[in-house]
Amino acid sequence: MDDGANLECLPRLADEIAAAASPSAAILQSILAVLRGSDATLEGHSYHSTTGNTLPPDYLIQNKPNQSQSEFWNAFSGILTQFAASAPAAPHFIDIAHLGLDAGRANDQFEQDIADALVALAKASSAPITVRFLEGLPNDGSPLPFDFANILLGKTSGQSGLGNLTCWIGNLNVPWADGIKKLPGSWNHSKILAVDGACGMVGGMNYWNDYLSTGSNANLYDAAIKVVGEAAASSQAWADYLWKQVDVGGTSEFRSLKLGDSAFGSAAIPYFSGSGITPPPATGSLPVLAVGNLGLWTLADQSALALEYGYARLYEQVKVNGRYASTPNIPLWFPFSHFDPGVAKAQQASSTARHVALSQVKPGGNLRISQQKIADTDTVSRAGFVIWPGNFLDDVANALKNGVTVDIILSSFETGASGYQDDMGGNNLRKVIAERLGSDSKLLTVRQVPSYEYNHAKIWIVDDSAFFVGSDNIYPGFLQEHGYVIADRAATQQFITDYWNPLWAAGVAPTDPKT
C-alpha cells in the first residue's frame, strides 16, 4: 500500500467535508432533498444543480433610474457577440425567453434591436444557427400577436445570405379549468438568454423598450445575472421542457422562420439536448442550482389550488388597511399545503427553493428581499380577491422569532402611474407580518424605492450564504419561471456589496397608497 498516495488525498477530502458542512452547501442540499423527494424525474428539467460555473467580472446587470445607457441591452448584445458572433464558422443554439408584449406595442424597440442583432449574426456566420424565441401571454381568447415574429419577417423577407439562421417563435400558455376559470392560466414569465450551454443570463427584465430608457425617462430598478458555465445548459434544458409543451398545441402556438423566406413555416421544433452542440469545458467551480416553476399544468394541480383557495378564504384571510380592506385577502401555500397532489414541489421548483432556503436562515442572521410587491392585487379586477404568499409570511414571522434581521424593499405607488408599482404598500405588509408574529418587530425593516421610481426585481438573499436572481415573484402567480440559486459565501457577499447595499441605501420609508 502506498501510504503517501493516500495521504495526498486528505486535503481534497478535507475541502469536500468543509464544503458539505458550509451553510451554502447545506442550503443547496436541503433544497435538492425536497425537490428529489417530490419528483426525481424532473431533475435536469425543472431543477438542475451544477458546479462548473463562474461569475464573470460583469456578472451583474442592473437597470437603474436616470441611467446613462442600457446595461441590459449591452449585456444581451455582448453575450451574442462573445459566445456566437466570435465563432462564425461554428454552429450555435440560442434560447431567448420572456413575457410577451401587450397589445399595441408591436414596434417595441428592444425587440427591433434583437431582430437586428440576429440578422447581423446571420450575415457574419457561415454555419447553421438555431434560435428559439419563447414568449408568454395570458390566455384571454384573442389571437396571439406574434409581434417579434412579424418584426423579424418584415426585416428579412426576400433577403439573401441569411438562410443559415432559423428562428422558432412560440407562445406558451396552459389554460386553467378546474374551479379557477376566471384566471387566465399559466404562461411563460421566465426571462432567459442562453447560448450553446456556455453562458446564461436570467433575471427580472423583459426584452421591452422599458429597459432601453435613459436619463429622466428611466425609472426602473431591476437586475439580472450572467453565469458562464454549466448553468447555461441547465437553462436550455429547461427551455427544452417548455418547448415540448408548446409542441402539444392547444392554446400554445409556434411558427418557424428561415431568414430570407417570405412566409412563416412550421418546421419541427429543435431541442438543445439533441442539437450536437457541445458546451465548452467548465473552468469554474461555482455551485448554481437552476430552478423553474412549471405553473399549473395538470388538473390535479388546478384542483389542489382551488381546494386550498376555498379553505383559505374561509379560515385564513389576512386583514389590511386602505383600498383593499373590504376585498378578500387570501394567503396561499401551494405547493406546501395539505392539498399538494404529491409532485407539485418539484413542478414549482423555484417557489420550493425559496421556501426551503428562507427556512434555513441562521438564528440572528439576515434575510434580504427585493421585490416589486408581496401581495398580488392584479387578481382583483378579474377574480375579486388579493393573493398573498402564505409560505413567505410564515417564513418571515418564524425568522423574526429566531432573532433574524429581515430587510424588505418594494416598489412605490402613485395612482395610475405605472404597472410596476406596489398598490398594497409596505405598511400593510408590515401589519400582516405583525399579526402572524403576534406583535411588531424592530428586526423587520420595510422600505420602498423613492416615489415615481419602481422596483421590478425578484431577488432574495439568505445570510451571506446564498441568493436567487430570476423571474419568480414572491407573490403567487403560478406561471412558468426560471432563475439561479447561487450557493456560495464569497459570491453572495459580493452580490450584497454590488447590488443590495446601494439599493437599500436608496430606499425610503413606505407611504400608504391612497384609496
Please give the structural blueprint.
Layout: H1 3-8, H2 10-21, H3 23-38, E1 47-50, E2 53-54, E3 60-63, H4 71-85, E4 92-97, H5 109-124, E5 129-135, H6 147-156, E6 165-171, E7 173-174, E8 186-187, E9 192-195, E10 199-203, E11 220-229, H7 231-248, E12 253-258, E13 288-293, H8 299-315, E14 329-332, H9 344-347, H10 349-358, E15 366-371, H11 380-383, E16 386-389, H12 390-401, E17 405-410, H13 426-437, E18 444-448, E19 454-455, E20 458-462, E21 466-470, E22 481-486, H14 489-506
Parallel strand pairs: 4-5, 5-6, 11-19, 14-16, 15-17, 17-18
Antiparallel strand pairs: 1-13, 2-11, 3-11, 4-9, 6-12, 7-8, 9-10, 10-11, 13-22, 15-20, 20-21, 21-22
Helix pairs in contact: 3-10, 4-5, 5-6, 12-13
Short description:
With 515 residues, this protein is an alpha/beta fold. Helices cover 33% and strands 21% of the residues.
